[in-house]
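Subgroup meeting minutes
Present: P.N., E.W., G.H.
Scribe: E.W.

1. P.N. recapped why we're keeping a running log of single-chain structure predictions: easier to compare across weeks, and new members can see raw inputs and outputs side by side.
2. G.H. added today's entry (127 aa).
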Amino acid sequence: MTTGQAMSQPSVLGRIGGSCPITARELARAEHARARSIAETVTMLKKQGLIDAHPDPTDGRKSLLSVTTAGQRLIDSVVDRRGAWLAWAIGQHVIPGEREMLADAAQIIAKMADCRVDTAPDEALRV
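Output recorded in log:
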């Protein structure tokens, strides 16, 4: 399935949907991306009618991002398709003993995905 979007857009859309409302700064931190990259992605998602931005009631200089009804429909569609594919792939290619290992690995990967880059020491981020 193709969404007709750049690679980062579905990820950013999903993050907004799961965290909304969220500021662009919080979004950039969560996506481990530069503010400029997030701004470009947010602009495209707004043009596509997938997200809205509203003034933050506690700080008028900031905008709070949230998904629109169309954005939520797209998120749901992608999640449903990915879930169906994953269930098929596991059923076809993973033997019962491996399924337990896969479940354990998924929990570990989820913990790693939720690690905030801004809490890592500088030496951990050097390439």
